[in-house]
Design a protein that fits this description.
Elements (H helix, E strand, L loop, with lengths): L1 E5 L2 E6 L1 H15 L8 H7 L6 E2 L7 H9 L2 H12 L17 H16 L6 E10 L9 E10 L4 E11 L17 H19 L5 E8 L2 H4 L1 H12 L3 E8 L16 E5 L9 H10 L6 H13 L7 E5 L11 H5 L5 E5 L13 E3 L2 E3 L8 H20 L8 E3 L7 E4 L8 E10 L7 E6 L1 E6 L6 E9 L11 E3 L1
Parallel strand pairs: 6-7, 6-8, 8-11, 9-10, 14-20
Antiparallel strand pairs: 1-2, 1-18, 3-17, 4-5, 5-7, 9-11, 12-13, 14-15, 15-18, 16-17, 16-19
Protein name: Peptidase family M28
GO biological process, one term: proteolysis
Keywords: Carbohydrate metabolism, Glycosidase, Hydrolase, Metalloprotease, Polysaccharide degradation, Protease, Secreted
């Protein structure tokens, strides 16, 4: 059955046959046309069944203009300025005006505050500090400070998206707070992405709220991001997506090969914060590849892999690399979808290394080994992602697939969103062996739909669409009634 709900009137219902014959007409009222693409190739691989092939979302005029404003020279200047503080080790001095993490903190606060001045009061900047008691890699009580810019949304301010880079650095010995640790790639590059996006977003109203943070304590154990995530959790914030930019500064591998047009996005399958009850449901429906983080990664590919960014997003089906972990994990632990952007291949001679020359080989994380054109393109990937998330409706909530009876069709239900420009919803589906959504059916402004396709044979999802054609990430349904 299909249910259409409008304020002040009872739901109207239609048969499955009515829905299937009307879906093509409904599509015109739900959203702008989908992007033109290699339709013939998509038709060849799309499975038979209702709907048309899923195609990417193109950058609109506003987004294209935003991406053009991302400034390579500013990004390079940020990386070089952060490296010039000598060390930004979490345990380094906090009161020296020219060296150490305190000097870097104050400079970042000054930069972000300058950008906020162009926001008409929508962007605020704070030094978010706490005292970390002695713990792993923290031998004495240490003040850890995040520099956080918050760009408040205009129509959906309670929905939040977060982007981080960590501004602390390290030498070979993780406890060495004195030696030079310029940290150009790890992670002045990620902080440069955050700062540049803060600059270009500050003057543009966003519907949802965007938090752009330079966090500390990452190298010692994700301390700053953990505190940020816990503060957001305690405040009841609805974080619908988070990205860590960590080591996004170079396109050159240790063997000299280059891949300047690819950025990796790590996205977990089984959620870090999954409860035993949630694990039981996941096992029953086969949802290992349909976590909120995987849906977020699919969204990134959908909106940020195009000519305006000049990049390919290589999604990695892992939480992070072997032996490593970045600040997105702090948000995964709180139960929020999150991923980690990082360069395609790493050169470990320029990460976590004392600055030195051995047998004619330069070691150390120095700006000379960064590719600033590459960082600029990574910033555009992040910009396309954040803007598309913040301007679109939120991910649908309360999505269920009805499992009260044995049937060969599928009924999906969800809660209607509250966005003033919400136009309706789309159902997406794919074969269970496919990694990406294959078919889409526009279903209109409804909260229930029945589709003549067996839930036993394919995976379904639901996404929201606004009047300008902006689409939300997909919500994967849970079994329900």
């Amino acid at each position: 059955m299909g249910t259409h709900e409008t304020a002040g009137s009872p739901p109207t219902r239609s048969t499955r046959r009515t829905f299937l014959t009307a879906s093509a007409a409904t599509a015109a009222t739900v959203a702008a046309p989908l992007v033109a693409g290699p339709a013939a190739a998509e038709e060849a691989v799309a499975p038979p069944g209702p709907g048309h092939p899923v195609r990417p979302q193109p950058p609109g005029r506003e987004l294209a203009a935003l991406l053009r404003e991302v400034d390579r020279d500013r990004i390079e200047a940020t990386v070089r300025r952060l490296a010039a503080f000598g060390t930004r080790h979490t345990l380094s001095t906090q009161d020296d005006p020219v060296r150490g993490i305190g000097a870097a903190r104050d400079w970042l606060f000054q930069q972000l505050s300058g950008y906020a001045a162009a926001s008409g009061g929508r962007m605020t900047v704070q030094l978010q500090s706490y005292v970390q008691p002695p713990a792993s890699r923290i031998p004495t009580a240490t003040t850890i400070t995040n520099v956080v810019a918050t760009l408040r949304g205009t129509t959906a301010p309670d929905r939040v998206y977060v982007i981080t880079g960590h501004y602390d650095s390290r030498a070979t010995d993780v406890m060495d707070a004195v030696s030079d640790a310029p940290g150009a790639d790890d992670d002045a590059s990620g902080v440069a992405v955050v700062l540049e996006l803060a600059r270009v977003l500050a003057s543009r109203p966003t519907e949802a709220t965007v938090v752009l943070a330079a966090v500390a304590g990452e190298e010692q154990g994700l301390y700053g991001s953990a505190y940020l995530a816990k503060q957001l959790k305690a405040a009841g914030v609805d974080v619908q997506g988070m990205f860590s930019n960590d080591i996004v500064g170079s396109s050159t591998a240790d063997d000299g090969t280059r891949d300047p047009r690819t950025v990796r996005l790590f996205a977990e399958g089984v959620p870090t914060a999954e409860t035993p009850a949630e694990a039981s449901v996941r096992q029953s429906v086969g949802g290992e590849n349909d976590s909120p983080s995987r849906q977020l990664a699919r969204f990134v590919s959908d909106v940020a892999e195009n000519g305006a960014t000049g990049m390919r997003v290589r999604v990695i089906y892992r939480r992070d690399r072997y032996l490593r972990g970045s600040d997105h994990i702090s948000f995964l632990r709180e139960g929020w979808p999150a991923g980690r952007f990082t360069e395609p291949n790493e050169d470990f001679a320029h990460q976590h290394q004392d600055v030195r020359v051995v047998d004619g080989v330069q070691y150390g994380d120095l700006p000379e080994f960064c590719d600033f054109d590459y960082i600029t393109r990574v910033a555009r990937v992040n910009g396309a992602t954040l803007w598309s998330l913040a301007q679109a409706p939120g991910t649908p909530k309360g999505v269920t697939v009805v499992t009260t009876n044995l049937t060969n069709d599928t009924t999906l239900r969800w809660q209607r969103g509250t966005e003033p420009d919400l136009a309706g919803y789309e159902v997406v589906w794919r074969e269970t062996t496919a990694a990406e959504w294959q078919k889409v059916l526009p279903v209109g402004d409804v909260t229930e739909v029945t589709i003549d396709l067996s839930k036993d044979n394919v995976f379904f999802g639901v996404r929201a669409v606004d009047r300008d054609g902006h689409r939300s990430p997909v919500a994967f349904p849970k079994p329900g009634s």
